[in-house]
Amino acid sequence: MVKIAPSILSADFSKLGEEIKAVEMAGADYIHVDVMDGHFVPNITMGHLVLKAIRPLTELPLDVHLMIENPDSYIEDFAEAGADIITVHVEAATHLHRTIQLIKAKGVKAGVVLNPATPVDAIKHIIHDIDMVLLMTVNPGFGGQSFIQNVVPKIKEVSELVQTHGLNVEIEVDGGVNAETAPLCIEAGANVLVAGSAIYGKKDLKDAINSIRGV
Ligand SMILES: O=C(CO)[C@H](O)[C@H](O)COP(=O)(O)O
Ligand SMILES: [Fe+2]
């Protein structure tokens, strides 16, 4: 079954705890936390102190998407704040292998994110070391953008890479995922779908999650 990771970027920050509980009750599998620094992406969101505050509120794995420069400097903070998965952009990590080792040394699952224009080749030599590949289907920085359909063949490419090596690597897709675009991602081999506006923008959260999951 495909996992759904609601992005709290689209939640009402004035009642973040309630918003997290609500998607948990509605059947979410992960909580996706978008960390933006105003440098790697042109937007600023939340840091490890917010992660620490929400950690006790849910049993669900916290899937932390770091859209920041110098990720190595902040891995420890996010790991200690309670991240279960930390994903770093290949475009932001100078020594990606070292960054992955830093995450794993903290007992946290490690993932690598590719922007829409970044080729799958960028992770070919690190695929054995990671737990997740996150494919961006929008340019990172904002919620509510349109799905870039040209990324779909990349999902398939990553899926084939993972299968060829017989690995247990999750394939997550992030950006513009909704009930219409989700089937394209699932068909191409994604098993974790992030959705912000398509979940928090809806009145019935359970219905929103189910329709993205395709049930
Ligand atoms: O990483 C992100 C943006 O950089 C968000 O996770 C993503 O955009 C989710 O929002 P939506 O589903 O509304 O596109
Ligand atoms: Fe994200």
Automatic annotation (TrEMBL):
EC number, as in UniProt: 5.1.3.1
EC class: isomerase
Listed GO CC annotations: cytoplasm
Signal peptide: none
Catalyzed reaction equations: D-ribulose 5-phosphate = D-xylulose 5-phosphate
Family of this protein: Belongs to the ribulose-phosphate 3-epimerase family.
PANTHER family in alphabetical order: RIBULOSE-5-PHOSPHATE-3-EPIMERASE (PTHR11749)
Active site: 34 (proton acceptor), 174 (proton donor)
Annotated binding of substrate, by residue: 7, 65, 141-144, 174-176, 196-197
Cofactor: Fe(2+); Zn(2+); Co(2+); Mn(2+)
Protein function: Catalyzes the reversible epimerization of D-ribulose 5-phosphate to D-xylulose 5-phosphate.
Species whose genome carries this gene: Fictibacillus arsenicus
Name the UniProt record assigns to this protein: Ribulose-phosphate 3-epimerase
GO biological process: pentose catabolic process; pentose-phosphate shunt
